[in-house]
Specification:
11 helices
Length: 304
């Protein structure tokens, strides 16, 4: 089983600090890199973590606040300078195409590859990307501007052949696709061999949910229920709860409450306010509600 890994490239919020980069993450699976948000400094973090620019497959932008997208124009330029030829798909909410096109006209007039933007309705959950490795669904969030989260689900076979069994019953190779779809096998003598004798259940797909930025939003609970890992913003602690109404962000306690109610396996908090030079209080606050919580830090890699 290949590792599905989440690389933290940046976990700070709007104001730059010497502690954290703005928001950016990379998912790696089967040789592909999926970039999630692209704040300033993302390229340097990609270098530091040994990721390959040429393997960037798709980019997902949660919303058009600068700490989530100001690194995108530079990255697009770098990919052209490196001679990328394959098309690049970028997904996000309304306004994404205008944002990318403005930079493309100014700085990428001779781009070496095709950039294809996809704008999605941030108010509903829908499948926005599928490839042989991943299925990605949008998650509506509640923030000051159109914002979406992303649910990444691994694509894997629902059933596997039981090779000793199919050899014993002399099942022709031409019947293998039908077996993998759940059909039983009818032998030449007319006897029916049940599918569960010839196949084994596939493993449960791994799932990762990325939710930044959002205020406390109970609608998320069912949409992320039971995921292997939930990243939920924790911009403030309860000490700064008064900031929530103006900013539409969450506290660490609120992030943990979502994780607890959704029965996720692990919570990852991030998007820290620059007011916190030490995020230990945020981590402690979250763990008081949901013990299996990790605080994001640049360079952290979580393997699912």
């Amino acid at each position: 089983m290949e590792t599905l890994s989440v690389h933290i490239l940046g976990c700070g919020s709007a104001l730059p600090t010497t502690k954290h980069n703005p928001s950016a993450q990379a998912l790696t699976l089967r040789g592909k890199v999926y970039l999630v948000d692209c704040g300033e400094g993302t390229q340097l973090q990609i270098r530091r973590q040994g990721l390959h620019f040429g393997r960037i497959h798709t980019i997902f932008i949660s919303h058009l606040h600068g700490d989530h997208c100001f690194g995108l124009p530079g990255l697009l330029s770098t990919l052209s300078m490196l001679g990328r030829t394959g098309e690049l798909h970028i997904h996000g909410p309304e306004g994404l195409t205008e944002y990318v096109d403005a930079h493309r006209k100014s700085f990428l007039a001779e781009c070496s590859y095709e950039i294809i933007t996809h704008e999605h309705d941030y108010r509903k959950s829908e499948v926005i990307h599928e490839d042989p490795s991943l299925c990605v669904r949008s998650l509506p969030l509640s923030h000051r501007i159109p914002t979406m989260g992303f649910l990444f689900e691994e694509r894997c076979a629902t059933r596997h052949l039981d090779k000793p069994a199919v050899d014993f019953y002399q099942v022709p190779r031409s019947c293998y696709p039908a077996l993998l779809l759940g059909e039983s096998y009818t032998a030449q003598d007319g006897s029916i061999i049940p599918n569960n004798r010839l196949t084994k259940p596939g493993r449960i797909p791994r799932r990762y949910a990325y939710c930044s930025d959002t205020e406390y939003f109970p609608n998320l609970i069912e949409q992320v229920r039971g995921v292997d890992l939930l990243y939920h913003e924790a911009t403030f602690g309860e000490d700064l709860r008064a900031r929530l109404a103006a900013t539409a962000h969450s506290t660490a306690q609120q992030a943990a409450t979502i994780a607890l109610k959704a029965e996720v396996k692990q919570l990852l908090i991030g998007h820290y306010s620059s007011r916190y030079t030490d995020v230990t209080p945020l981590l402690d606050e979250a763990r008081s509600v949901f013990p299996n919580t990790t605080a994001a830090q640049e360079g952290l890699i979580i393997h699912l």
